[in-house]
Amino acid sequence: MKLFVDTGNLKDIETLAALGIVDGVTTNPSLLAKEAGDYRQTLKRICDIVKGPVSGEVTATDYAGMIAQGHDIAAIDQHMVVKVPLTREGIHACKTLAGEGIKVNVTLVFTPAQALLAAKVGASFVSPFVGRLDDVSTSGMEVVREIVEIYDNYEFPTEVLVASCRHPLHVVEAARMGADIATCPASVIDALFNHPLTNIGLERFLKDWEKAQAVKV
Ligand code: E4P
């Protein structure tokens, strides 16, 4: 399963990419609004760092506006993916942009029915928001399970990008279900590394080693 970072922060992306665990990046208007500078330059820099799919979202809500912004975003770099919301206009825009060979990520997906529509119009990625579903007492991961099942039934090439991941269990469950990608904030990726027994075990190994060296001297 691929791992994307869900951020517009260059420092976080650089740090995680250097470890070799980042396959791509997702951004959204809220995330890019937190970062200084021109968003196009930020997205270009992100593409240069990760050299993998980088989602940039349209802010237009009408079809013509989405197409114009979609062309603008796609022109930033060959790795750019145009993110459109799951609205009627977004689905229409996805059909057109995908038909032109532009990769599209259909976002703000909360049901398997919405995911089916995204696949039908040639989306490269579909983004179910698991954390936000959990927030309203609906199992986000159950929705992912149903999307994976539907896509497998018809061999849709659309990749399931599990978004709004809030903790390592979302990532592990996504991998168990066969989702293609999980996108997580840097804090969740950091949490994937952690286990107290790893720290305790390492400390013990190093102490034993030092003790043995001291005796040999
Ligand atoms: C995905 O592409 C979105 O940017 C993101 O995962 C939303 O996550 P949030 O619900 O934590 O804001």
What does this structure look like?
The chain has 217 residues and is α/β, with parallel strands linked by helices. It has eleven helices and eight strands. The protein has an eight-stranded parallel barrel with strand order 1-2-3-4-5-6-7-8, surrounded by seven helices. β5 (104-109), α6 (112-120) and β6 form a beta-alpha-beta unit. The radius of gyration is 20 Å and the shape is globular. The chain starts with a strand and ends with a helix. The chain binds erythose-4-phosphate.
Architecture blueprint of SSEs:
Layout: E1 2-6, H1 10-18, E2 24-26, H2 29-33, H3 39-50, E3 54-57, H4 63-74, E4 80-85, H5 88-99, E5 104-109, H6 112-120, E6 125-128, H7 130-135, H8 140-154, E7 159-162, H9 168-177, E8 181-184, H10 186-193, H11 196-216
Helix pairs in contact: 1-3, 4-5, 6-8, 8-9
Erythose-4-phosphate (E4P) binds at residues 6, 26, 28, 107, 127, 129, 131-132, 163-164, 183.
